[in-house]
Amino acid sequence: MIYVAATFRIRPGTIEPFVEAAYPAIDTARRQAGCRLYDLHASVTDPDRLVCIEQWDSRQDFDRHMATASLLAFRQAIERFVVSSRTEIIYPDHVETI
Fold first, then answer.
1. Cβ-Cβ contacts under 8 Å for 28 (sequence gap 6 or more)
2. What is the pTM of this model?
3. How many CA atoms within 13 Å lie on the side-chain side of 83?
4. 35 has which bridge partners?
5. E strands within the chain?
6. Which of 57, 45, 56 is nearest to 87 (CA)?
């Protein structure tokens, strides 16, 4: 089992269109094989920071998710809102950053 934490720094005032673009990708991901958890969270102290927390049965399940059309469409839709992003894959014994 792995956890994934994807942190997004977004342009000020773009949280609503970002979240709107995220809904279809989140809905699709939650129904994918190996997905146990997929939630998007907004920081209570920083309105321009969002974190997506995911739990997958395996890295292979996560990799399949990363190649789906819904995720690719999401990434294109949010591109204009994102200043920076960081994805950490959390294994039982180490953390990988992609």
1. 68, 70, 71
2. 0.93
3. 10
4. 56
5. 2-10, 35-42, 49-56, 82-90, 95-97
6. 56
- The phi, psi pair for 7, rounded to 5°, reads -105, 130
Q: What is the amino acid identity at position 37?
A: L
Three-state secondary-structure class, residue 28: helix
- The position carrying tokens 């342009």 is 11
Note the Cα 41 to chain centre separation in Å: 10
Of 19, 61, 9, the residue nearest 36 (C-alpha): 61
Q: Angle between the 69-78 and 15-30 helix axes, to the nearest 10 degrees?
A: 170
Low-confidence stretches of the chain (pLDDT < 70) are none
Closest among 18, 62, 64 to 9, alpha carbons compared: 18
Q: Round to whole Å and give the CA distance between 56 and 86.
A: 18
**Separation CA 91–CA 89 (nearest Å):** 6
Task: Name the residue type at position 71.
Answer: L
